[in-house]
Design a protein that fits this description.
The N terminus is likely disordered. The strands form 6 sheets. Strands 14, 16, 17, 19 and 20 form a 5-stranded mixed sheet that branches. This protein has a 4-stranded antiparallel sheet with strand order 4-9-6-7, with helices on one face. A 4-stranded mixed sheet has the order 11-10-13-12, covered by helices on one side. The protein is an alpha+beta fold. It has 8 helices and 20 strands.
């Protein structure tokens, strides 16, 4: 007689089938629920979230709140083949709210398998909050003899969460002291200057809970952050381009192909950093030597220059 039973887990579920002494297992991953995005108080995004793989939250500029400005910003976004927003422009909306809307939409990633067109329009409502949100109750410093019972990283983007987790200097079970809490803050700031941490007493009062989060920061710091621009779009902004020299050894070996970089472009349009993604080693060095000399027209976000992260492909093709 065969026996069938189900085992459930967080990651998924598994069917275990026993037949004549043989055990066969097969796992079926469960589909993850859409990630909840915490927009600023008073912000409502008119968008079918099921068509998004992920999006960044929308902030409500403090300067606009102080001036009593509210309204709806409509943004038109262009998507690349992977569903990432490659370009966006404001169709309508109060000038003081446009920058916050664009900064968010430029980081969105749509699910193209859901039948999303290559251009979409998004409406974002900004309604003045009736009152300021209550400040979080956090302990300024670690409690005396506090043992770390939990470390919350859930509010961080997945890639940043993994990076922070790997570089934490305080762990669950450690006694929290003024010295190691300061060391934690130093390590977080080394990863990203917008990372912060707060300490709160645990529910039983016997220890501490550490929450690590990204600070919204000031308008000036947000305007300085990088935005992602599609490679084809950014290529139109090149004003000075150096052609790579085909390495003689690669020619002799009849090696050709594409070298791909992730490029970080400064506000003035110069290449700030290049990270090799793929490409033959004999071609990569020549491509890098040329690309690092490229200069782009500065990218403006509502009139202010911003840093850009983009993809650059350099093709090496042997002539017949």
């Amino acid at each position: 007689m065969s026996q069938f039973r189900m085992i459930s887990s967080v990651a998924g579920f598994a069917a275990v089938l026993t037949l004549s002494g043989w055990m066969v297992t097969r796992s079926f991953p469960l589909q993850a629920a859409p990630q909840s995005v915490k927009d600023a108080t008073g912000v409502k995004v008119q968008q079918d979230e099921t068509k998004l793989l992920h999006r960044s939250p929308v902030r409500y500029p403090q300067s606009a709140i102080e001036k009593g400005i509210q309204g709806t910003v409509v943004v038109e976004a262009s998507l690349d083949s992977k569903g990432e927003v490659s370009d966006a422009q404001v169709v309508s909306g109060p000038q003081e709210l446009r920058k916050a809307a664009l900064e968010s939409v430029l980081q969105w990633h749509y699910n193209m398998e859901a039948g999303v067109p290559s251009k979409v329009q998004v409406a974002i409502d900004f309604v003045l909050p009736s009152q300021s949100a209550p400040a979080a109750k956090a302990v300024a410093g670690p409690p005396a003899n506090g043992v770390v019972q939990r470390i919350n990283l859930g509010s961080l983007p997945e890639a940043l969460r993994e990076k922070v987790s790997n570089r934490l200097t305080v762990h669950i079970g450690d006694e929290l002291t003024a010295a190691n809490s300061q060391e934690l803050m130093t390590s977080l700031n080394a990863i990203d200057e917008h990372l912060h941490a707060t300490w709160t007493p645990s529910a039983d009062g016997a220890g501490s809970v550490i929450d690590v989060f990204l600070s919204a920061g000031s308008a000036d710091s947000l305007s300085a952050k990088r935005i992602r621009v599609g490679g084809n779009v950014q290529a139109l902004n090149i004003i000075s381009k150096v052609t790579p020299v085909y390495p003689p050894l690669a020619k002799q070996a009849k090696i050709q192909g594409t070298v791909r970089f992730t490029a970080y472009i400064a506000k003035d349009g110069h290449i700030e950093n290049l990270e090799l993604v793929s490409g033959h080693p004999l071609l990569a060095a020549a491509a890098q030597d040329a690309v690092k000399q490229w200069v782009y027209r500065p990218t403006l976000l509502n009139g202010d220059p911003v840093e850009v992260v983009t993809q650059i492909d350099v093709n090496f093709t042997l002539s017949n």
